[in-house]
Amino acid sequence: MKLTRMFALGLLAAAPLALAACGDDAAPGEVAEGEALPAVTAPPGTSWTETVTVTAEGGYMIGNPDAPLKLIEYASHTCGACANFAVTGKQPLKNKYVASGVVSFEQREIFLNPYDIVIAAMAQCGAKEQMQPLSDEVWQNLEAVFTGLQGNPAAVQAASALPVEQRFGKIAEVTGLLDFFAARGLSADQARTCLADTAKIEAMVKASEAQAKEVGVTGTPTFVLNGKKLDVNQWPQLEPLLQRAGAR
């Protein structure tokens, strides 16, 4: 779906559609049982949980870039199931498995609605080290975020009719997203500059569409481990698969 087409969709229906669309089951995938993998020590003065790499695919990866187990999450910022994983699974994943250097964790974008595009552009606006923490802030406060998204439909409709270089910033303003991110360290001016970069945003959307098609993403979150799509979407089912693959 092209950027212009996505923003032609009904913005007022975007939030409920996101909740309905996320959390679908992924296609089945099996994880081969492996020997326990030894921990990999981070370079002196660093830790793997603070090591961030922007990948060639545009994802944001934390951990050892050469980790033997590479976990990717395809996620939507307006997805309740993604929020549940962020709240229940992110910390044990990072503290136990990413910290050991055995698992790297990469977050890639899936856009279920136009709001996802605005939020992702803002999360990626600052330093690369802030992208995943800002995403987690959205998921941890998803109810409040949705209140803002649904609170002023007439203003959102008016914003959607603006020229594209003004549209994203205005949507962020009238939905409270500018204030939400400003309270977490991303200034409104900085956010507006990023939201006006329509070439970068369109590239982000095209990359997401291509990856979703290639992987076969049918719902969010979708997890891929070492190139294999898994059939789980929450931490209690994901952790045993990491352990089976050799993370201990």
Produce a short descriptive summary.
It contains 13 helices and six strands. The protein has a single domain, classed as 3-Layer(aba) Sandwich (Glutaredoxin). With 248 residues, the protein is an alpha+beta fold.
What is the N-to-C order of secondary-structure elements (H for helix, E for strand)?
HHEEEHHEHHHHHHHHEEH
Question: Beta-strand percentage?
Answer: 5-15%
How many whole angstroms does the radius of gyration measure? 18 Å
Low-confidence stretches at least 5 residues in length (pLDDT < 50)?
1-21, 24-28
Bulk shape: elongated
Name the helicity range.
Answer: 40-55%
Widest sheet, order of strands = 1-2-4-3-5-6
Number of strands: 6
> CATH topology, what is it called?
Glutaredoxin
Q: How would you classify the helix and strand content by structural class?
A: alpha+beta
CATH level 1 class label? Alpha Beta
Q: What CATH architecture would you give? A: 3-Layer(aba) Sandwich
